[in-house]
## 1
Amino acid sequence: MSNPRNGRPYRRLTAAQRALGLPCWICGHNIPYEIRGPLAGRHPLAFTLDHLVPLSRGGDLLDPANARSAHRRCNSARGNRTAVRQPRSSRRW
Ligand SMILES: [Zn+2]
């Protein structure tokens, strides 16, 4: 299986974005960039590469202009939200 997120261009983009040392673009707080390695895989505040235009809406995975720095938890919370369907608005009680 080929996952573009495992590819070298994606890793390079991730490293470049991390090197910018920017705060989380979602919540605005600093990202603890000292968290890295195996620990970062689970840490909720670890740096993750997020995308301004979600991939699900046609955003480019590898475009630096579409790359944003985000906490893991902010990134996943946002991702979950866009993945969730519209709430049932016609529900009657
Ligand atoms: Zn955040």
## 2
Amino acid sequence: MALFELRQVSRTYHLGDLMVRALKEVSLAIEAGELLAFMGPSGSGKSTLCHLLGLLDNPTSGKLLLDGQDASELDEDGRAELRNRKIGFVFQNFSLVPVLTALENVQLPLLFRPGHESLARKRAAEALEAVGLTPCSRQRPSQLSGGQQQRVAIARALVTHAEVVIADEPTANLDSEAAESLMDLIQKLNAERKTTFLLATHDARLLRSIPRQISLHDGEVVSDQKGARS
Ligand SMILES: Nc1ncnc2c1ncn2[C@@H]1O[C@H](COP(=O)(O)OP(=O)(O)O)[C@@H](O)[C@H]1O
Ligand SMILES: [Mg+2]
């Protein structure tokens, strides 16, 4: 069974009288453990697709299955529970809390769960170690480079032991060197931990390291290439 299955998924936004068809009958299967990128120009539907896959939004029509479970059959609480258990998010602006240290930022998703503070700290420390940032544990985001802040965001996505990390334009605010090093980290985490990574990017420089590339144009999948390392 695929991790995600999309069957003719469409998402339409209504802006007053205007109707924007952001996704048009997208059908896809994504297996656990994949590292893939949604490519395409601005406005092609990448973020809309990330929101649907992250259970942050519902299709207007069509079906989205996660582990065979039809997301539209869940109520809001059920979707939140599934999302919190399985999915981590990384955004282009890092979205770290400025007054918290790196370690505290990573710990945040665990504060909403029952459990022990010391266990949360231990898991946060492990996640920071996995992204190579143990020495920066006590620093605040403003004391870190953009690349380091994005690694903290990845650690925060992993701290819940999420099976899937969805990253929308994770390198958009990074210089080339930091972007490449972030992609190296994502490849390593994908290989070693088998975490599924779904990236949205229009940064063609990164594609070298991404084994499956799905191109979107005007809300439609125009190509889906596996084993496409170049
Ligand atoms: N919340 C929204 N309300 C109305 N239109 C939206 C909204 N979000 C996205 N869109 C429109 O949907 C289309 C796809 O947008 P988006 O998924 O953000 O693409 P991308 O991430 O590839 O730039 C665009 O035409 C965009 O203007
Ligand atoms: Mg976008």
## 3
Amino acid sequence: MASILLYGSNTEKIPYVLNEAKKIQSEFGADEILALVIGNREDAQKLVNCGVDKVIFASGEGKFPETVSEIVAKVMEKYEASTLVMLNQPFEVEIAGRVSTKIEASCLTDCLAIKKDGDGSLIAEKMLYGGVVIGNYKLTNNSIVVTLNENSCREIYKNEENNLSTFSEETFETKPLKKKITQTREIEQTVDLKSSRKIVSIGRGINKQEDIGIVEQLANAIGAQLGCSRPIVEDFKWLKPERQVGLTGTIVAPDLYVAIGISGQIQHAVGIKDAKVIVAINNNKNAPIFEIADYGIVGDLYEVVPKLQQALQAVVNK
Ligand SMILES: Cc1cc2nc3c(=O)[nH]c(=O)nc-3n(C[C@H](O)[C@H](O)[C@H](O)COP(=O)(O)OP(=O)(O)OC[C@H]3O[C@@H](n4cnc5c(N)ncnc54)[C@H](O)[C@@H]3O)c2cc1C
């Protein structure tokens, strides 16, 4: 195998895909692992001790998919990289599609892992049907573009031998952008459920928006973030989409997940399958959430939650 190229619009995220890239390198005998940073030399320099063989800094516009995909494709050609590995994030997914058409690569997004098939070809694993089964995809092209599911890349690569990378600087001509940015603003995000260690989530068992306060008090008592099921966002519009847990929301992996008035349909359950401990409060003892919960309380949330909050608060105040 030729070299493996790693790219991430957020440079700090690149070391998270390095464990999987090292595995691909050793299984397929890839020449080198390269990391590409576009536009910010300082960010590129920070990567020299992360464990890749070479850091490539390319000057140019690093914010737009059009220019980034052009530069990535040119770097792959110049450095004879056959495989592009990125974290599965919205910008990177767009880059994956654009680069794979430019270099005629097999492309698969949101992969869980990469492994070698019996005949030596590369197999990528990906969740299907909301995580009910795992599909094995054989990527047969000589060039491959994959994005890796964030929950499969939670560990940063430990460069225990402290190998320093070589550093190259490049300038590539890119086509002029057809659009002009006249104004930019930061997207307001108040919560990052992906990295939350404790989450207390509400579902349709909550009768009205004002009642969310009862659950918020419980969340505050244990230092948890507030999450929710889809109807709370889509149907009632009581909370912002960033708080939705599940297949089309955020896949979370907290130490503690408390599901309150949530039935536990598959699209929600798949989003919490990596939670270490799941506690469910539901007035229906047959609710599917109890099949995946470690601890369950069958009861009316309007009675259970305030009592639980008071009990926990008393422990915290001790
Ligand atoms: C393509 C697709 C993608 C989807 N993606 C997602 C997703 O990302 N996340 C997601 O959550 N859903 C998603 N859904 C929707 C999903 O199928 C369920 O409809 C949704 O999760 C149900 O939300 P819920 O559990 O809050 O509501 P319900 O299923 O209505 O459950 C409410 C629960 O509250 C309990 N309850 C009622 N009153 C009380 C009370 N007083 N005390 C205690 N318990 C009470 C009930 O017993 C019930 O179990 C998706 C669906 C589709 C088709």
## 4
Amino acid sequence: MTALPIHPDQRTPSDTSVPVSESFVSIQGEGKLTGVPSWFLRLAGCNLRCRWCDTPYASWEPESVSRPVDELCEEMRATGLRHAVLTGGEPMIFPQLLPLTERLHRMGVHITIETAGTVTRPGVRCHLMSLSPKLANSTPVGDPRDPSGKWAERHEHRRLNFASLNELIAGSPDRQIKFVVTGPDDLPEIESVLARVDGWKPDDIILMPEGVTVPDPDEVAWVVEACRTRGWRYGDRLHIRLFGDTKGT
Ligand code: SF4
């Protein structure tokens, strides 16, 4: 693991708490570690509002219980697993991520952080930075949950932060960059995003068809072709195939 500088926030008291939407054991359904049994911690709260967000209970309408970092680490230890996935919402908006990842690191746990990559958290411990930069298809224009349009404006302003993406990639020993795609029109934007991001290899790039059902092969043939010609990965959602779109999986 890359030893990043210790941040002063890592000296927060042991009773530091975080807003937890859910924690559970399942298999990783997405990305390079697909199939690996993992402990998932979903923090509630996000600085974005994706139109197609599949965890609105951690973004549009956050539901959470405040839980101490110590208690969460003990829960992880009791699973006997080696892999932890810190997700959201947007986990990087919480400074408590520093003591949490520091303790998991000391326990010898492999840490994946799932983030949109718009916020940095210097000193955070992470083995696999799982970045999901948001394309224009995510902006909630005309969404009834945003009648004033303020979130659409905020989301559009925040969704791509290249300084942050590059800092997060540079600070982690491994990375994957997932794009949720809705049609071939997304490809030029993906190419333009990648042109401004450093430190990736073609097989770090994952195209994931939008949706919370198993896709029709004909509808995603263009995704397969786009990956085949560029050396990128097709991003399946194994948890959807196995468990459907349900919480706790
Ligand atoms: S960044 Fe993730 S959690 Fe936040 S709104 Fe988008 S999909 Fe939902």
